[in-house]
Amino acid sequence: MTEGKGMELEKLITYCGLYEGCCARWHENLTIAKLASALAELMDGHGLHHWMPEAVQEFDYSEFRKGLRFFGQKQGWFVCKRGCKKGDGNPRCKIRECCQGRGLELCFDCGDFPCSKVEGDAAMIARAEEYRKLGKDKWLRLEMERARSGYEHHTGKCYTCL
Fold first, then answer.
1. Burial group, residue 91, by CB count within 10 angstroms (0-12, 13-18, 19+)
2. Cα dist from 125 to 41, 92, 117, 118, 156, whole Å
3. For the purposes of burial, counting CB atoms within 10 Å of the CB of 23, is it exposed (0-12), middle (13-18) or buried (19 or more)?
4. Is residue 126 a contact partner of residue 18, using CB atoms and an 8 Å limit?
5. Average pLDDT over the chain, rounded to whole?
6. pLDDT at 35
7. Cβ neighbours of residue 6 under 8 Å, at least 6 residues apart?
């Protein structure tokens, strides 16, 4: 990994140790938008919009489609373009607030890690162990490969294979 490219990729590491490239909301992936659009197309292809509202009274199909249209957008606030460290994601993220307050780029670098903010988050603790074991450069290469394969870190699944 070249120095310039490595520095650029480091900016895609979130405070909690996720790689932005493996996020379904990341603007280069748009996994959620693609899946929402595909589901809308599939539902419409079955003609559900014509008969389901009348046949299934307890389900508001028009609200469902409104939700799919919303999540199917490839622009807007739901799509992350800047990354966690520049304000995308949960605006009330306790880990981001803590790292910014302590001047840390990564929660794992804190002398108090793991603390009460991450207790019970087995996935984050496992990420920290993997990150420390591999080192930043190898870890970034692994995450880039995961991103290329369609891996989504919030669920631990691949959605490009659907």
1. exposed
2. 39, 21, 11, 8, 15
3. buried
4. no
5. 89
6. 93
7. 137, 140
